[in-house]
Amino acid sequence: MSSAPTRPGPALALAAGGAAVLALARHRRKRASATSGWQAVTVFLPTQPAALPGPLAALGSAVETRWSVAPGDKGMELAARPAERSKIEAADLRQALRHAKMELEAGEVLQADRPGTTKATLLNLPLRAATRRAERLGHL
To answer: Residue 19 and residue 13: Cα distance in Å, rounded?
Structure first.
């Protein structure tokens, strides 16, 4: 009687799955440490304002900020990064910077136009989710 050849089976699948999970965790840690640097926006102002705008001021000591002259004399550059041991996420900091820029230039935080005839449906759920994510991260 000949025995059938053995197949790699569940053990190999489990090992491959475990390796994929470890690689994903390593990638996320690396990406998280890469976003701990400075993020900046150019604000069309002739000089640095006396106080931080509301969205950044609300973060308080969780962020470090600095002002500098923007390249080409195009206004001022506002840069921010999470303070040491701060738990602020890069997306939250980016959104605060974008809102601070809007507040300084326009006097208010601008909202994307929303047609009054649009109703929340199951069909437009993916678009609404992408729009919310884009508002926070600054891109789709």
So the answer is: 10
